């Protein structure tokens, strides 16, 4: 009877330990795929576009629009964060006739993973706006 009790206790301990242990690790790769960033704007203002996948950041100063940046075979660790930010740093816009124009304008930000749009939004930016339109997506 004592022997049966020890076996039952050992089985219970193994089941409890296995059930309570976690297979999750922040270093584990959940998969991989392509990531694309797109920024469109209705103005020709000077701007910076910042794209980020976890700790990897790309900063494009004086970006030309529409702006497109793609990465293939990106590893996706658990809790991957993908972010796209538009920063306007021009005080005035110059229209095609060379005239200054301080009208509000639209910015559209899009993040795609494996060709599928996962986050998209548009913003109206005014010349005196101090916020930087940004979107992020977590896998």
**By helix and strand content, what is the structural category?**
mainly beta
Gross morphology is: elongated
Q: For the CA atoms, what is the radius of gyration? A: 24 Å
Strand order of the largest sheet: 4-1-8-9
The level of helicity is: 10-25%
Distance between the termini: 52 Å
CATH fold topology = Lipoxygenase-1
- Runs with pLDDT <50, length 5+? 8-13, 15-26
Number of domains: 1
Number of helices: 1
What fraction strand?
Answer: over 45%
- Helix-strand string: HEEEEEEEEEE
The tally of strands reads 10
- Mean pLDDT across all residues, rounded? 78
Quickly name the level 1 CATH class: Mainly Beta
CATH architecture level-2 label: Sandwich
How would you sum up the major sheet? Answer: 4 strands, antiparallel
Give your account of this protein's structure.
This protein has one domain (27-138): Lipoxygenase-1 (Sandwich). The longest helix is centred in the first third of the chain and has 19 residues, at 2-20. Strand 8 and strand 9 form a beta hairpin. It is mainly beta. It is elongated and about 55 Å long. The chain has a four-stranded antiparallel beta sheet, with no helix packed on it. A four-stranded antiparallel beta sheet has the order 3-2-5-10, with no helix packed on it. The chain has a two-stranded antiparallel ribbon with strand order 6-7. Residues 8-13 and 15-26 have low confidence and may be disordered. The termini are far apart. It has one helix spanning 2-20, and strands at residues 29-41, 47-53, 56-61, 67-77, 81-88, 93-94, 100-101, 105-113, 116-125, 134-138.
């Amino acid at each position: 009877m004592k022997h049966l009790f020890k076996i039952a206790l050992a089985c219970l301990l193994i089941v409890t330990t296995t059930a309570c242990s976690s297979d999750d690790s922040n270093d584990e790769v959940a998969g991989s795929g392509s990531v694309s960033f797109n920024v469109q704007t209705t103005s020709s203002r000077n701007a910076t576009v910042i794209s980020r996948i976890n700790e990897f950041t790309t900063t494009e100063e004086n970006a030309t629009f529409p702006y497109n940046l793609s990465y293939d075979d990106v590893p996706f660790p658990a809790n991957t964060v993908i972010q796209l930010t538009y920063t306007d740093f021009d005080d005035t816009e110059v229209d095609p006739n060379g005239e200054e124009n301080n009208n509000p304008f639209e910015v559209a930000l899009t993040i795609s993973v494996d060709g599928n749009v996962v986050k998209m939004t548009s913003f109206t930016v005014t010349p005196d706006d101090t916020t930087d339109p940004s979107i992020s997506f977590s896998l």
